[in-house]
Each structure stands twice: as structure tokens, then as C-alpha cells.
Amino acid sequence: MASTAFFIATLLTLCISYPATSQKIASPPSFAPAPAPGPHFVNLADLLSVAGPFHTFLNYLNQTQVIKTFQNQANDTDQGITIFVPKDSAFSAIKKPAFANLTQDQLKSLLLLHAIPKYYSLSEFKNLSSSGPVNTFAGGPYALNLTDASGLIRIGSDWANTKITSSVYSTYPVAVYEVDKVLLPKAIFSVEPPMAPAPAPTPDESPVAADAPTGAKGVAGPKGSDSKKSDSGSSMVVVGVMSYLAVVASVAML
Ligand SMILES: *[C@@H]1O[C@H](CO)[C@@H](O)[C@H](O)[C@H]1NC(C)=O
Ligand SMILES: *[C@@H]1O[C@H](CO)[C@@H](O)[C@H](O)[C@H]1NC(C)=O
Ligand SMILES: *[C@@H]1O[C@H](CO)[C@@H](O)[C@H](O)[C@H]1NC(C)=O
Ligand SMILES: *[C@@H]1O[C@H](CO)[C@@H](O)[C@H](O)[C@H]1NC(C)=O
Ligand SMILES: *[C@@H]1O[C@H](CO)[C@@H](O)[C@H](O)[C@H]1NC(C)=O
């Protein structure tokens, strides 16, 4: 009899104390810092090495350390970053000396010109196109003309007029858009750089060709996985709710 009473008492204690203690442990770490989980960290070098092919651009970023500037800005969740990444075929379309002759500072400026120190989702380009030339990470004379014609987003930089052909990644604070030409500012190239003779078909040309028909409609279908794409923070909210549910479930199971 006494042992049964003890058993029940123990059970009751467990029932009462367990949820209380596990709540205490589970709740504060996940909910105390107000707005759910922070934005997902994006490693730009990793992203650019698997998407694309963007090896030429990535190699230049690495060689000049501009990758650190970009990553630092990507980590800065106040403003974020928007990067226009030319495909390897865009670089091979221009005669090699054009880039080989650049000083390290010119090369840095050229790379910095391919980014805006602020996150822009595709839908925000409409506003940008009406606001005149947009300043880039390169500052000073390095601005870009952005126009949005029903979703076809064109980027003008003196000698080059390119367009966004694909959204590689777009979740605040990081946007990476593929472009089909290297931006060529007059501040670096006093004359138009000569194009390579024949756009020799390379293995990476086939996805380009596949892009072409949809390219007319502006941003082609997703090249990367769909889960990587999001114009807003909505996926973040879902993650927040999911982790909340997971915590509730684990508490309930106890
Ligand atoms: C990046 O550059 C460093 C030298 O600055 C080099 O050691 C490293 O191998 C490079 N990494 C890649 C992925 O190219
Ligand atoms: C960016 O943030 C990551 C993760 O917090 C960190 O490992 C990395 O060193 C940071 N990089 C820069 C350039 O700030
Ligand atoms: C590159 O430099 C070489 C030698 O300095 C010069 O002859 C050539 O014209 C330059 N090419 C370009 C595209 O500027
Ligand atoms: C576009 O600009 C208008 C007025 O300047 C502003 O109210 C609106 O929020 C902006 N839209 C986007 C998507 O930034
Ligand atoms: C932007 O467009 C204006 C007007 O067409 C032009 O004068 C200017 O040179 C362009 N700037 C760039 C960087 O392409």
C-alpha cells in the first residue's frame, strides 16, 4: 500500500515537474531573441562554385579577395547584397588581353561593379529602373542602368548591355542573379574590348541554349533548386513556425 502511494506520488511529481522543466529548457533559447531564427548564412564561394558555371568570376573574386568584401556584406543583414554574376561563357566571349591587361585595382573595380551593397528581390527592380543609374559596390563613376520591361531586367554598363537570365539565389539578405555578359564600364575600358572570334561551343553552352527561348520572357526558369529561391522572407517564417512546432512536439512527447 505504502509502495503504491509512493509510486503514484512519484508519477504525479514526474507529470507535474517534467513539462515545467522541459519548457524552461526548451523555450528561452529559441524564443527569447525576438524574431525567430536569424537569416540563413550563405557562403558565397560555395554557392558560386556549385551554380553556374561561374568559375571565371569566382576565381577573379578569390584572386582579388573581393570575395571577402562580398561575403562581409552578405553577412551584414541590414542591407544585404545583390550580385550580377556573368557565366563563364560571358568571359570567354571577350578576347583574353582585355582582362589580362587590367591592373589589380581595375580588376577589383570591375568585380565590385557587378554588385550592389543592398538586397533587391526581382520585383524591386521596377522601382530601381525609374530611379536613374544605380550606384554599385565600386562607387564613384561605376553606376549601372537598370531597366525592367515586364520582368525582363536589363543592365547597362557603357560597352555592355546584358540581362538577368536566371535567379540563382534570392532570399534576403543575399541575391545572386546570372547575367549573360560581363559589364564593361568606360572608366576601365576606354575603348570597346574586342570580342573573341568565334563563340566556340563548349560543353557549358548547352544549358545556355536551353535558356535562350525562355530568356525572351525575362528571367528564365529556376536553374538551381526551387527551394533556394524566394523573393521574400516567407520561407524564413515557415522555418520559424516549423521549429516552433518541433519544440512543442518534443515537449509534448516528454
Ligand atoms: C583562393 O586564393 C588563394 C590565394 O589567394 C588560394 O590559395 C586558394 O586556393 C584559392 N581558392 C580557390 C577556390 O580558388
Ligand atoms: C560571415 O559569417 C560567417 C558565419 O557567421 C563567418 O564564418 C564568416 O567568417 C563571415 N565572413 C565575413 C567575411 O565576414
Ligand atoms: C595589352 O597590353 C599589351 C602590352 O602592354 C598591348 O600591346 C595591348 O594592346 C594591350 N591590349 C589591350 C586590349 O589593351
Ligand atoms: C516602389 O516605390 C514606391 C514609392 O517610392 C514604394 O511605395 C514601394 O514600396 C516601392 N516598391 C518596392 C517593391 O520597393
Ligand atoms: C545610362 O543611360 C544613359 C541614357 O541612355 C546614358 O547616357 C549613360 O551613358 C548610361 N550609363 C551607363 C553606365 O551605361
From TrEMBL:
InterPro entries, A to Z: FAS1_dom_sf, FAS1_domain, FLA_A
Keyword Lipoprotein: yes
Presence of the UniProt keyword rRNA-binding in the record: no
Keywords, ordered alphabetically: Cell membrane, Glycoprotein, GPI-anchor, Lipoprotein, Membrane, Signal
Residue segments, region Disordered: 196-233
Signal peptide region: 1-22
GO CC annotation terms, alphabetical: plasma membrane; side of membrane
Similarity annotation: Belongs to the fasciclin-like AGP family.
Protein name according to UniProt: FAS1 domain-containing protein
